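Usage

Read records sequentially. Each one opens with the input sequence:
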Amino acid sequence: MENLFFECSVRAALIIGAAAIVLSAMKVKEPTAKHHIWTGVLALMLLLPIWTIWGPKASLRVLPPLTQASATQARPIEILSPSVMLSTARNPEVTLLLGIYLLGLCLLLLRLGIGTLRSRRLAREAVLREGLLTSSLCAAPVTVGFLHPKLILPEQWEQWPKAQLDAVLMHEAEHARRRHPLIQWFALFNRALFWFHPLAWWLENHLSTLAEEACDSVVLAQGHDPRAYSEYLIDIARSVKGSGVRLNIAGLAMPGSSLARRIERILESHSVPQISRPRMTLVSLVCVISCTAIAAGTLDHARPYSSAKHDATQQQAATTAQPTKFILGDVRIEGDVPDPSGVRDRVLNASKSREYENREELVDKVAQRIRADFQERGYFRAVIQIRSSLPLGLTDGKQSLRVVVSINPGDQFRLRNISIQSAAPDQALSISTETLREQFHLRDGDLFNTTEIRKGLERVQQSYVSRGYASATTIPETEIDNASHRIDLILRIAEGPHTS
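and closes with the structure output:
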C-alpha cells in the first residue's frame, strides 16, 4: 500500500511538471487552452491508482547497464508459496499511516458531500424572479449543477445596471456551457483522494482560477469595457465581504478566487494572444504523449554495449555446439549474516552432483536453497539478492560457477500460537483441533520454520484423505507481531465431500 502511495505521488508530480513545462515552452497563455490541458491532467491523475495497479506498462531503458550479465535486482522473496500460505503480516507504521490517510480522505469527502447537497438544495429552493433564479443565501452570482447547471443570482441583482447584468449572465452562461462546475467537483474529489499531495490542492485552485479567467475572456470578447467589468467584479466582491455570507458548495461563484490577478489580466487582456487550433492540437498531443509516458513508463537497465551483436553470436553458437551443463562450484555470501560458513556448506552439499541446463536455473535454485535455510531458522523476512555468477572453469565438460549472494536476514521470529478453525463458521470440523494441531511438529515458542509448517499442512490434508475425504482445502494466514518477534498461524479448513 505504501508503495502505491509513493508511486502515485511521484508520477502525479512528474505529470504536472511535464504539463507545466510544455505549456511554458510552447508559450500557451490563453486561459481556455490552459484549462483544457489541466483538465486532462486532472483526469489522468484520477486514473493513476488504477493505472499503476492494472494499467499497461512500458520499459524505459534509462538506467546504467548491469555490470554482470547474470545480475538480478534485489526483490523481497516469497515467504511461503501462495498455494500453501497467505501472508497477512501487519506493519504498525503502515497501519498508522493508512489510518491517517483514511481519516483525511473521509473528512474531505464528507465536506465535498455536504457541499454537493447544499448546492442541490440551493438550486431547488431558489425563487424564479423575472425569469432568473434568485436566492437570499447568495451574495454573489453562482453556477451550480453538473449535467444541467443553473445560474443563481443574489437578491440585489435588480439594482445592477443593465451592462453589469449582461456581463454577469454571459460570464455564468460560459461556466454552464463548459461544464466548469462538474470539472471543479472532480478537482475537489481528486484533492480528497490525494489530500497529502500539495499539487492536488494547487491543481484544484488553479482550475478554478482558469475557469474564471476563461469566462472573463468571453465577456471581454463580446465588447464589454475592461475597466467597467473590473468595477463590476470589485462591487460584487465588496457585497460578499459586507454580507458575511459564506457558501460551502460545489459550484463556481463570481467573482471567484484570485480577484487581484483577474483584474490585472482583464485590464491587460489585449496582450494575451489567442491560440490557433493547429497549435492547440500540437500542444495537446505533446502533453498526452509526455504525460502518458510518465504514467505508463517503468525504469529499466540499458542493454550492455554491442549486446545485440553479442546475442546474435551467442545464438549462432548455440545452434552449432552442444548445450553446456552448469554445476555449482562455490558460494560466496556477503552481508552480516549468522553462520555464513554453515549456510555455504549446506547449499553446496544440497547441490552436489546436480546439473543444470542453464545459468539462470542454477542461480534460482541457489537462491531458493539459501532462502529455505534462513526460513527454517526463523528468519521469516530474509531477502536474497544474487550479485553475480562467475565462471570457475570446466569440470568434466561442465561449466562450474561461483555464485555471489547478498543476504539481509532481518529479524528472527518464533511461533506464538497455531489456531485451527473451520472455514465455514456454522460448520464444525470433522477432525478435532487437537488432532490437527498434532500434525505440526512445532511447539509454541519454537523458531518459525516454514518448511515444517508446509509439512504440517501436508499431513493435515493426508489426515482428511485417510478418513475418507476427497480433499480438504487449507487456508493458512499469518499475523506478525514485530515488537515481540512472534507469529500467529491461523489455519482455516474447508472440508471437501466425504467419499465413504
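Summary fields computed downstream for this record:
- Residues 320-408 form a domain with the Ubiquitin-like (UB roll) fold (CATH 3.10.20).
- The longest strand covers residues 383-395.
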